Amino acid sequence: MLRRRLTSAILLCAILLPTAAFAQSGAIYQAPKETIDKLKEEGMKNSQVMQTLSYLTNVIGARLTASPNMKRANEWTRDTMTKWGMQNAHLESWGPFGRGWELKRFSAQVSAPYAFPIIAYPKAWSPGLSILPAQTAPNPKDKKNKTAQTIQPSTVLTADVIYFDAKTEADFEKYKGQLKGKIVLMSDVREVKADFDGYGARLNDKDLLELANSPDPASIERPAGPPNQSQMQARLERFMNGLKRAKFLIDEGAAIVVDNSFNGSGGTVFVQQASVAADIPANPLDFFTQKRLQPWDKEAESKMVPQVTVATEDYNRLVRMVQAGEKVQMTVDLAVQYHDEDTMAYNTVAEIPGSDPALKDEVVMLGGHMDSWHSGTGATDNGAGVAVAMEAARIILASGLKPRRTIRVALWSGEEQGLFGSSNYVKQHFGEMKGGGNIFGIPQPNQPKPELVKGADYEKLSAYYNLDNGTGKIRGVYMQGNSAVAPIFRKWLAPFGDLGASTLTMQNTGGTDHLSFDRIGLPGFQFIQDEIEYDTRTHHSNQDVFDRIQAEDMKQASTIMAAFVYQTAMMDEKMPRKVMR
Ligand SMILES: [Zn+2]
What we know:
Elements: H1 2-16, H2 33-45, H3 49-60, H4 68-83, E1 87-94, E2 100-112, E3 116-117, E4 120-122, E5 130-135, E6 156-163, E7 183-185, H5 205-213, H6 229-251, E8 256-260, H7 286-289, E9 307-310, H8 312-323, E10 329-339, E11 345-352, E12 363-369, H9 379-398, E13 406-412, H10 420-429, E14 431-434, E15 438-439, E16 442-443, E17 451-454, E18 461-466, E19 474-478, H11 486-493, E20 503-505, H12 514-518, E21 524-529, H13 534-538, H14 551-570
Parallel strand pairs: 5-10, 6-7, 7-8, 8-9, 12-13, 12-18, 18-21, 19-20
Antiparallel strand pairs: 1-11, 2-3, 2-10, 4-9, 6-10, 11-13, 14-17, 15-16, 19-21
Helix pairs in contact: 1-5, 2-14, 3-9, 9-14
Zinc ion binds next to loops.
C-alpha cells in the first residue's frame, strides 16, 4: 500500500509545519505510555458504550427537548453515572424553555380512490386532530389530581387532498376558499436519484489533508463594506414567502398541511418542528430582531395547523395522482399532548472530583447534546455523543486514575432548538457576550459592539470537549483557530495514529455546543469525525436509530475522548486560550 503510506507522509508534514513555531515547548504534559495503554485497554476491550447507547435509544427512545422522554433520559443518565461512582450527579435547569410535546397516536394512509399506507411523521409540536388537555403542574390542594389520562376518543379525519401549487403570492388567489377542511400538499415533487455511490463514507487521505492545510480562520479576508444586500434580500424573500404560505394555509382553514421530506429516499423521512403562522411585520427585518413565536410557545398553538411530513416516494405519488385528475382522499389519526407542568428544561451534569488541592476547583468538561428529534431515536444525533462522553468518564474511573482537576460531564438539552442548554449553562457559570447582532450571520450596523461579561467561573475552566457529528470515529480535532493548542494536541494524538486519529485543523466547525464556550473565548472543541451516513441518512431522520451505529467507532471515540480529558486535567497549566477578536 505504497500510495497510501506516501499520502500519509505528506499529511504528517502538512500537520507538523504550522506547529513548528511551538517546538520549544518541551514541557507539554503527556500521560505515560502505561496510562494511555490502560485507557485503551478499558475503552477498546471492556467497553460499555453500546450498552449505554442501547438503553438511551432503544429503551428511552426519542428525546425531544422538554418531553417526558427527555426528562427520563436526564434522570437515567444522572443515576447511571452515580452508579459508576461519579459524584455530584444532578439535573441543572435552564429556561423557561416552553412546553413539552408528546405524540400519543398517529397513522396516515391514502383511503381513496383505493387504500394504501404511506410513510409519514407528524412535525414536532404540531397540534393534533385530538389534543389531550395539556398536562399542568399538580395542584397540591386537589386530592383527586390524576396523573394517568386516557386518550380521548379518536378524531380520525378523512378528507380530500389538494395540491397547493403556488409558486408566488399571486398564485394564492386561485386557492382562496378551496382549502377549508382539506389535507393540503404544500411542497413540490422532489426528484429521487439512484444511489450509485452508497450512503456511507469515511474521510479519506485527501479530505484529511485539506483539513490539515486549511488556514487560520482569522487570516481569511472577509469582504469589507456593508453586507451583501442583494444576497440578503433574496434569502429574506424566500423566507418571507414560506411564512406567507403558512399564514395563508391557516387563514384558509386547511385541516392538515403535508410536506415532502426535504432529503433522503427509500422511506427515510427527515422531519423537524412545525411552522408557526407568525404575523408578518411591515419591515421584514424586524422579524429577526424581535422575539418570534416558536412552536414550543404556548401562544403558538392557535397559530399552527396539524403538520405532517411524508417520505418522498409516497409524497411524489400523491402529487402525481392529484395532477392526473384523481380525487385523492387521506385518512389521518393524530393525537398529541402538550406538557405545561414544567416549563424549565434540564442538562444532566456529573463529576469526577479533582485530586490536587491546588487544582481541583478547576474543571475540564466534556459532553454532547442529549435532546433529539422525534422520528428516530436520536442515535447518531446525538445519543452517540452522550454515550461516548459518559463512557470516557467511566473509562477514566475504571482505570483507577486520579485526575488533578475536576472532570465534569454535561449532557445538554435544547441543542436542536438553538444550543439553548449549553449556552444557558455557560452563561450561568462562565459568562456571556452582550450586545452585537446579526441576521443570517451578517453583522448588522447600529448594534452595540459585543462585549464579554465574565461569570464567576470564567477563569476555572480549562477546556470543553464535544462530540456531536454522528457515529463516526474520531479522526482529529477542530482547533477553532487556537494555534496554541496544536503542539499539545499533536502529542496527545500520537498514540492514536493507529486508530485513525492524527489530523489537526485550524478550521472552525459550527452547529453544536462547543460554540457556546468558544463564543466567549473559552477553549471549546469538537472532534473531527468520519461522516458514515450522517448527512445522507440519519441526521434528523426516522433512520436515526441504534442500528446505524458503528460499535468500533464508538469505542475508539470514547477512548480518545478519555485520553484528551484526562490529560487536560493533569496539565500544570490550563489549556491556552485564543486571543478574542
Ligand atoms: Zn441535530
